[in-house]
Each structure stands twice: as C-alpha cells, then as structure tokens.
Amino acid sequence: MRSLVIAPQWIGDAVMTEPLMRRLHARGEQLTVGALPWVAPVYRAMPQVGEVVEFPFQHGGLQWRERRRIGRELHGRFDTAYVLPNSLKSALVPFLAGIPKRVGYLGEARVGILTHRLKNPKDKPPMVAFYSALAGEAGVESDSPHLEASAPEVAQVTGRHQLQIGRYIVFAPGAEYGPAKRWPPSHYGALALQLDATIVLLGSGKEAALCEEISAHAPGKCLQLAGKTSLSEAFALIAGARAVVSNDSGLMHVAAAFGVPQVALFGSSSPLHTPPLNDRAQVVWLKTDPGYVPSLDCSPCFERECPLGHRRCLVDIAPERVASLLE
User: What is the rounded (10 degree) CA torsion for 16, 117, 119, 50?
Assistant: First the structure.
C-alpha cells in the first residue's frame, strides 16, 4: 500500500508522529510524507519514511492554486492518505489528488473531505497517542518517538564547530509558541556559569537575540549557534551532546527521541500532554512540586503570554536546581 502522510507544521509535533510512521511501515505501507520545509528534516531522520515531499506553503492563507497544482502532481500515486493536522486546508491536497482513502480527525469542517474520520478527543490527550491512533490499532498509549542520527554526520558537524562528542551541553532556550513557555535568559546564563562544560546555544534565527542575551550573562562559556545551523545540523549537535536543557519546545522532543539525557522545564504547558518521552529525561514543573508555595493554581494556562504577568511557573525554577539535576 502506498500512503501519503500530511505532516504537522511544528517540529515537536512532527517528532511525536514517529510511532505512527513505525506502525504504518511495520504493516507494509510505503510512506511518503508531505511536509513544510522547516519540518521536513524531522522525517528524514525516520528510516521508515521512503520519501519526503516539501510543500511550498506558508503559515496562514488557503493558497488554493498551489494546493491544486500539487494535488494534480500527486494524482494516482497513493492508495491512502493520513492527514495529521486538524485544519481544513491540510486535508485539501489528498482530496484534490483523488486518494481513495483519506484518514484524519473530524477537525475543521472536513466531513466531505475525509473518508475515514476519528472523533476529536474531549480533553488534551498525550499527543503521541493522539497521532498513533490514526493507525487504527490498539495499545498506542505506550508509544514513544525514536529518531536515528547518522554517526558520520554527528562527527562532521561537531568537528566543524571544534566540539568533542559527549563533552558539551546544549541549551535550547526558545519556544516558538510564546514567552510564557520560556525560562528567563538570566537563569540560563546563571546555569551556564555553574556547569563544567562548553554550552552550545541552539535555536532558529528568531531566537538569536535571546541566545546572545544568554551569552552576555555567561561570558566565555557559550557557543552561540542559534540561526547559524540548519535543522539537520542542530539535530546532529543534539545527538552528540552530553545533555540538553530546554523549555517545552520542538528541540526538547528531538532530544528525547535521540535518547539524550535532558532536563525539560515546563511552565504554562503540561508534561501530561506533551512530555519528553525519554527514560533519561527529568522534568521540572512547579505545578506538581509539593514543596513549592503558594501553589500554582493558574498552571497550566496554555497561553502565549502570562495572563497574570508574573511567570512564577518558570521564574521560580532556580538555576541551582537544574544544575543539580544535570549532575
């Protein structure tokens, strides 16, 4: 069976779809993934995926002409499509390509667009199980993502930056969703000064200023690479790291899928919904810390900005606590 998978638009969500890819591949489906360019490298790190087609779409807008063109190009190539995002526009390419079986959640006005529809969960379930359920199989609750790094690529990328594998620590201080998910840069800087290792700062170009601020708090400790690597190079640097410290972000899920020791800092979001599924992960979430007072009744708010203006859920996570977890 030839199957087309329409990928989510966020890196973390893309990582969390890997168990679904594994399930589909195990039952003999030949997988092609249609993904936006900034997500495509995630699927190239999944050996189950035979082909990645990069879609030229931008955030927002229907972009009907482009979707219709791609639908024509893909016509007759696939037996089944799995539409992972819940939006109407994400289901249009499989529909326009005439793919006979189109699977997805009911989502946004998609009754006539999808042929096989799952009901949307009422609560916020773990996202890995949410995606894996599209395979129509039981036992998805225990699924966890795994990515594979190329050892020669890890050696090449670390060597290019004069880093020794296993001798540096990666900080991924960004969070695309918004400031309410970000540990303060001064805290990252204070943590860097407490660690006996080179700190590699990773992120997108949008996070370069944030990483420069962290570097200023820890002079001589950080190698600032935010906006200076491709996503594939960032993956290699994470795979070669001694440990990773991050907020709840896409790179947190990448580190988890590579099985790298990590400390994940949660504030406005919930590790019950999007945890790092990694036996070597340690999660800090003051919401469930019995020793933290007063309690955080406002968490998780899932807001981009702190509605109360204090961000206690992250500001009150001490750098010393994170340093002790890394030890």
Answer: -10
pLDDT tens-digit map of 276-311: 999 999 999 999 999 999 999 999 999 999 999 999
Average pLDDT over residues 163-181: 93
Count the helix, strand and coil residues of the chain and give each as a percent rounded to the nearest 5.
35, 15, 45
**Predicted TM-score of the model (pTM):** 0.91
Judge contact between 282 and 262, C-beta under 8 A.
yes
List C-alpha distances in Å: 294 to 286, 289, 291: 10, 11, 9
Q: Which two tokens stand for residue 213?
A: 């601020």
Give CA–CA dist 162/141, Å, rounded. 41
Cα 17 off chain centre by: 10
Alpha-carbon torsion (84, 85, 89, 90), positive or negative: negative
Yes or no: say if 136 and 23 are a contact pair by the CB < 8 Å rule.
no
Angle ∠(162,12,204) on CA atoms, nearest 5? 45
Whether pLDDT at 175 is above 90: no
Q: What is the DSSP string of 245-278?
A: EEESSHHHHHHHHHT--EEEEESSS-TTTS----
Q: What are phi and psi of 65, to 5 degrees?
A: -60, -45
Hey, how many other C-beta atoms are within 10 angstroms of the C-beta on 123?
6
Q: Give me the pLDDT at residue 278, please.
A: 96
Find out whether 174 and 182 touch, Cβ atoms under 8 Å.
yes
Kind of pairing, strands 80-83 and 49-54?
unpaired
Burial 185-203 (b: 16+ CB within 10 A, else e): bebbbbbbeebeebbbbbb
Q: Which pLDDT belongs to residue 42?
A: 96
Please report the pLDDT score of residue 107 as a whole number.
81
* 148, two tokens: 């594979």
pLDDT of residue 121: 86
Per DSSP, helices labelled H in 180-315 are 185-194, 208-217, 231-239, 250-258, 312-315
The pLDDT score that the predictor gives to residue 59 is 74
Q: How many CB atoms lie within 10 A of CB 108?
A: 14
